[in-house]
């Protein structure tokens, strides 16, 4: 049996990611440096002999935000079958002149992987948010993983949509791949910093209030995987227990950051079936 993976890629650098401003619904373009780094990531990480093999991709999820969609464009992955069409959005920039990596995977834009809705905190740095809350008389040290965002999303709101996405990934694509080695099972998700860290936590069965113990910089790449190849077919009896992938990454302990390259971070964990 194969063990399918979920690759997560954070969008490239923007002016707001550089200065730490929370960027949810705002459509901030990539910087020139951000575009160059994403192109380099695609060349280094995608290919028939690389981490992400296009022919092994079963599906691709992309955030509805322009910065995530442009990041995907710069990875240079295209549908193999021209009848499928091109991308499910109007291109945000020029095509890369080099031949594209072709894939049979469907490309889906979904709100489930958009960035955290920061509400009143949109465009403000963490220090600015804490200062604003203090001036409003709100007690305590603000932590998005516990407190969420005023007029935006709470941790439970984010958990709900990410759990729905994880169920979709497993039910639609990865159960079949675990039962049949001839069926592609890898999934690619291109999105944002907070939401991808939250996705990794929910993949491991952790509460968002625990807070992540890893970082994911702009343009970063991560891998989510299974230790065991069994997924229960009964949703009512599913009882996954998280533990870290120590067999391969024996230097990874309790969510420690692993820097594989200048812009690559591996978050590798798993669910054990009942």
Structure overview:
The chain has 274 residues and is α/β, with parallel strands linked by helices. It has a single domain, classed as Rossmann fold (3-Layer(aba) Sandwich), CATH 3.40.50.1240. The protein is built from seven helices and eleven strands. It has helices at residues 15-19, 32-45, 66-75, 126-135, 144-147, 155-179, 193-203, and strands at 6-10, 57-62, 77-79, 101-103, 106-109, 186-191, 221-224, 241-244, 259-261, 264-265, 269-272. Strands 5-2-6-1-7 form a five-stranded mixed β-sheet. Strands 3-4 form a two-stranded parallel ribbon. A two-stranded antiparallel ribbon has the order 8-11. It is globular. Substrate binds at residues 23-24, 67.
| Alpha-carbon distance between the two ends | 17 Å
Mean pLDDT, as a whole number?
83
Number of domains: 1
Helix vs. strand class: alpha/beta
Work out the number of β strands: 11
What integer value in Å does the Rg equal?
18 Å
What's the architecture in CATH terms? Answer: 3-Layer(aba) Sandwich
Query: What's the helix count?
Result: 7
Walk across the major sheet and give the strand order: 5-2-6-1-7
- What is the overall silhouette? globular
- Helix and strand sequence: EHHEHEEEHHHEHEEEEE
Spell out the CATH superfamily. Answer: Phosphoglycerate mutase-like
| CATH class group | Alpha Beta
Poorly predicted spans = 229-274
Query: How much β-strand is present in the residues?
Result: 15-25%
Specify the biggest β-sheet.
Answer: 5 strands, mixed
Q: Helical residue percent?
A: 25-40%
CATH fold naming: Rossmann fold
